[in-house]
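Format notes (please read before filing issues)

Several people have asked whether sequences and structure tokens are stored in separate files. They are not. Every record keeps both together, in the order shown below: the sequence lines, then the token lines. Line labels are part of the format and must not be stripped during preprocessing.
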Amino acid sequence: MTIERSPSKTAAQKQMRPLRVATASFIGTAIEWYDYFIYGMAAAIVFGPLFFPSVSPAAGTLASFATYSVGFLARPLGGIVMGHFGDRVGRRSMLVISLLTMGFATIGIGLLPTYDSIGVWAPILLVTLRFIQGIGVGGEWGGAVLMAVEHAPERKKAFYGSFPQMGVPGGLIIANLVFLGLTTNLSDEAFLDWGWRVPFLASAVMVIAGLVIRLTISESKEFEAVKESSTEHRMPFISVLREHWREVLLSAGAFIGINAVGYIFMSYLLSYSTGVLGLSRNLILTFTLVASGVWLAVIPWASALSDRRGRRGVLLVGSTGLVVCAAALFPLINTADSALILLALLATAVFMGMVYGPIAALFSELYRAEIRYSGASLGYQLGSILGGGIAPTVATALYNNWASSTPITLYLTAVTLLSLGCVRLITRERGPRRPA
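Then the structure lines:
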């Protein structure tokens, strides 16, 4: 009896392992993106008056989003450094380091004195901690996606790879719930005085939970095979640039549009709708929360569909839909009609999910296992700088200069069209390579 049950148990454990790894990737990624998003929400609401009080409200908001963009400048550095060691030492250790890095910076922001207390050192320290946040999240994405994809069954790579992708709207949902709870139950004065610090300090509990989870997962067989065969590259980053520069550029271009729309959706719209249109902060937070739930649900569905039907079709439909949403988003928001605003956010969320889910597997399949962390991270993080990294700052500057959202609409339409073209090229000319 023992001999008969043992193989069955082992087989069950092997079947559960990909799901366990993917779930761990989702939880850890959601925690890191929660940390990242609460900064964006605070930048939209409180960082202007607290850290840049000597300038006008409009200039303070612009300065806040400029510090927000600093985190994106650091993301390629995190991707390069952690990608290097992730390809040489292991994926899991880099995931632990990235989580600790993000947690340290986020808690530090929650404890940071404001301009009234320490003067110019307040914005300097804020920028420094934001830069550290960027390093942490820059190294996070590649490791989390590769752990999920490399552990996955061959015909379910995109589905399992979508779990860390779901961590992005997952983190946004948690951040929105926390901010919504605080702004609902605190006066504006209390929130500005101390309430804004709570989301940052609460990160400590989640970081500890994330570390416990991440320490329970093991390296993938693909990476273990690289170690056993001693085929690691001495400088994976250089190998990627020398052998796969086209894939890096195309993947960066393919990601710019979804990332720009995503960060307008997640950050700038809160500032614009409350500051320019005078809409209720809680209304926009609630709508964003609902749309984020739709975004999260679409990601695994679209990813599973791409496993069955192919990456190209799903990504092209999603990218085309994003172009339409980019053109319609601000005109619908400007109506100040609650139903139309919700419709705009829900439609945007659907097409963001169709692009964001399958793109993780697509990027990972472009590179061999021994350089995959570096390659996938580099394209993704370069796209993040040119997409979400500058989008809120560009949007704020465009509105301040033109007093109209039309230039923002033209900007978003242009970057989504660029990404649509890159998606067509990367899926037609190269196609997703199967792991070596």
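For reference, the curators noted about this record: Residues 11 and 17 are 10 Å apart (CA to CA). The chain is about 85% helix and 0% strand.
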